[in-house]
C-alpha cells in the first residue's frame, strides 16, 4: 500500500524559520508556499480575504504558518498592522484548517510572558502577561487558534537566529567585522535558538503524528509547546560567543537595558521549559552554545561570512 503524499501549505518561506522549513518539510509531502511576492500565490497576511482564498485553493492537509510581524519596536507604533498579521491572520488560518480538517502549525514567542520569573523557566500553563505590542499581538494569535479549536500545534520559541533574514547573529557578525568594540545588553536572559533546529524539530513531530505507531490522536496532542534550545545566557554573552568565531573579534562590554533604550519593553527573563515537548514527542534541542557552534562551524560559516 502506498501512502498519499500530504499537501503542505507553508505560509512564507522567506524568513528565518520559513526558509529552513522549506527544506525540512520536503520529506513529508508536496510543499506549496504563499507569500507577499509569490508568483502564483501572492498573499499579504493583512489581506484576510486573500489569505482565505489561497488556503481554499491549495486545500492542504497541513498548514505551517511561519509568517509574522516581527519588528518588535516598530509594532509599538504600528499596532493595527501587527495585530492583523500576528493576531487575526492565525485565527483565519485556524478557521480554514478546521473547515478542511487540516492540522495548523503556528509559531509563537517568549514575549507573551512578562519576564518576572527569576531562574524559573516558564511552562506552557504559566500566566501570559505580554509587555509589548508585539507580545500582545502574538498572544492574540495563540488565543484565536485555541478558541477556534482546529487541530493545532503552537510552538513558542525564543531569540531566534539563523542564516536568513534579519537577526542578532547576522548583526553581530557584521558589526564584529566593522567595529573594535561592542556594547551589548547583559541583564536580559533567554535561550538563543537556531532556526534550523526549529524546522527540524517541527518535522520530527509531524513525522510522529503521521506514523501509524503514534498512540495518540492529533486532537489529543493539540496545544502549546515550548521549543527552544537548552540552557540560558544574556545578549552580551551570546554576542561574545558569536564574535569569538571571527578572525579578529571585537571587545564586547556589558550594559544595562536602560543604557540601550528601545520603544518596546523586553522580558528580563524569558527562559522556557521544554519538558512538555520532550515528554510528549521525545524531542529536545541541544543547549544554545552547542547549537551556535554547529551553526558557525567551518562549512556553515562559508556562506555566512561571504
TrEMBL record:
<dbReference type="GO" id="GO:0009243">
    <property type="term" value="P:O antigen biosynthetic process"/>
</dbReference>
<keyword id="KW-0521">NADP</keyword>
<protein>
    <recommendedName>
        <fullName>dTDP-4-dehydrorhamnose reductase</fullName>
        <ecNumber>1.1.1.133</ecNumber>
    </recommendedName>
</protein>
<comment type="pathway">
    <text>Carbohydrate biosynthesis; dTDP-L-rhamnose biosynthesis.</text>
</comment>
<dbReference type="GO" id="GO:0005829">
    <property type="term" value="C:cytosol"/>
</dbReference>
<dbReference type="GO" id="GO:0019305">
    <property type="term" value="P:dTDP-rhamnose biosynthetic process"/>
</dbReference>
<comment type="similarity">
    <text>Belongs to the dTDP-4-dehydrorhamnose reductase family.</text>
</comment>
<keyword id="KW-0560">Oxidoreductase</keyword>
<feature type="domain" description="RmlD-like substrate binding">
    <location>
        <begin position="7"/>
        <end position="298"/>
    </location>
</feature>
<comment type="function">
    <text>Catalyzes the reduction of dTDP-6-deoxy-L-lyxo-4-hexulose to yield dTDP-L-rhamnose.</text>
</comment>
<dbReference type="GO" id="GO:0008831">
    <property type="term" value="F:dTDP-4-dehydrorhamnose reductase activity"/>
</dbReference>
<dbReference type="InterPro" id="IPR029903">
    <property type="entry name" value="RmlD-like-bd"/>
</dbReference>
<dbReference type="InterPro" id="IPR036291">
    <property type="entry name" value="NAD(P)-bd_dom_sf"/>
</dbReference>
<dbReference type="Pfam" id="PF04321">
    <property type="entry name" value="RmlD_sub_bind"/>
</dbReference>
<dbReference type="InterPro" id="IPR005913">
    <property type="entry name" value="dTDP_dehydrorham_reduct"/>
</dbReference>
Amino acid at each position: 500500500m502506498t501512502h498519499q503524499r500530504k499537501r503542505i501549505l507553508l505560509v512564507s518561506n522567506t524568513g528565518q524559520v520559513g526558509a529552513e522549513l522549506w527544506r525540512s518539510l520536503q520529506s513529508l509531502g508536496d510543499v506549496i508556499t504563499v507569500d507577499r511576492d509569490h508568483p502564483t500565490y501572492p498573499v499579504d497576511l493583512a489581506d484576510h480575504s486573500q489569505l482565505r482564498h489561497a488556503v481554499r485553493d491549495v486545500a492542504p492537509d497541513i498548514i505551517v504558518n511561519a509568517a509574522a510581524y516581527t519588528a518588535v519596536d516598530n509594532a509599538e507604533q504600528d499596532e493595527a498592522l501587527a495585530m492583523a498579521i500576528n493576531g487575526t491572520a492565525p485565527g483565519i488560518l485556524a478557521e480554514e484548517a478546521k473547515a478542511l480538517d487540516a492540522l495548523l502549525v503556528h509559531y509563537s514567542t517568549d514575549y507573551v510572558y512578562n519576564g518576572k520569573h527569576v531562574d524559573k523557566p516558564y511552562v506552557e500553563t504559566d500566566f501570559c502577561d505580554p509587555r509589548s505590542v508585539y507580545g500582545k499581538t502574538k498572544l492574540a494569535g495563540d488565543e484565536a487558534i485555541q478558541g477556534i479549536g482546529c487541530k493545532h500545534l503552537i510552538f513558542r520559541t525564543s531569540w531566534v537566529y539563523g542564516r536568513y533574514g534579519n537577526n542578532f547573529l547576522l548583526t553581530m557578525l557584521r558589526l564584529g567585522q566593522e567595529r573594535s568594540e561592542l556594547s551589548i545588553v547583559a541583564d536580559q536572559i533567554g535561550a538563543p535558538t537556531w532556526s534550523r533546529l526549529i524546522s527540524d524539530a517541527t518535522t520530527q513531530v509531524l513525522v510522529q503524528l503521521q506514523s501509524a505507531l503514534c498512540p495518540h490522536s492529533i486532537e489529543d496532542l493539540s496545544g502549546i509547546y515550548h521549543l527552544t534550545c537548552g540552557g540560558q545566557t544574556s545578549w552580551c554573552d551570546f554576542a561574545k560567543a558569536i564574535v569569538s568565531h571571527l578572525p579578529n573579534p571585537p571587545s564586547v562590554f556589558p550594559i544595562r537595558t536602560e543604557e540601550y533604550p528601545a520603544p518596546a519593553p523586553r522580558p528580563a527573563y524569558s527562559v522556557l521549559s521544554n519538558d512538555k515537548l520532550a515528554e510528549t514527542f521525545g524531542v529536545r534541542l541541544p543547549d544554545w552554545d552547542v547549537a551556535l557552534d554547529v551553526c558557525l562551524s567551518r562549512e556553515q560559516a562559508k556562506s555566512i561570512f561571504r
